[in-house]
Write a structure and sequence with these properties.
By secondary structure, the protein is mainly alpha-helical. The protein contains 7 helices and no strands. Helix 1 crosses helix 4 and helix 2 packs parallel to helix 4.
């Protein structure tokens, strides 16, 4: 288990790719547990029911994952979908824990605005990480992976924005 977590951390540091993660439904289940725990921790420590529609957030996340899976499948690399999606979920979950940790630690010291800024920068690191994962899954350049990750981010943000009332 520790080796798996270290490998996910190596992916977050852009040292390894999804090919380092076993293409296993058990590992996928571990990633889902990580996502559930990190989401619960985020909501418990910094979320509020008035600010977010959690169902919409998960719908947008699922749409992003389906987008990634479709890109991999259409690219003729269908055998890599499970590894890539597992890696994206697990790495995103770990980044969420770092995001929450930074916010919780920095808030009392530097104020909520600065803590939110630093935490958001940590959260934005998921775009290059997901781009790296996609590039490795598709055997493409990092630039192609980043373009795909940005497209997924825009898709997710657009879906969430479409259901938020202005003002």
């Amino acid at each position: 288990m520790l080796l798996l977590l270290k490998t996910f951390l190596d992916v977050i540091a852009l040292r390894k790719g999804p090919d380092s993660i076993p293409g296993s439904w058990l590992v996928f289940l571990v990633a889902l547990v990580l996502m559930t725990v990190s989401s619960y921790v985020a909501v418990a420590l910094i979320g509020s029911e008035e600010q977010r529609n959690h169902g919409l957030t998960f719908l947008a996340y699922a749409m992003g994952l389906l987008f990634y899976a479709a890109v991999i499948y259409v690219s003729g690399k269908a055998g890599r979908v499970l590894q890539a999606i597992t890696t994206i979920i697990a790495c995103g979950s770990i980044i969420t824990v770092f995001f929450v940790g930074a916010f919780v630690v920095l808030s009392p010291v530097s104020g909520q605005e600065f803590a939110a800024f630093v935490a958001t920068l940590i959260l934005f690191w998921s775009v290059p990480v997901e781009g790296h994962i996609m590039a490795r899954a598709l055997d493409q350049s990092w630039f192609i992976g980043i373009v795909i990750a940005i497209a997924a981010f825009v898709l997710q943000f657009g879906l969430q924005s479409a259901f938020v009332e202005p003002g």
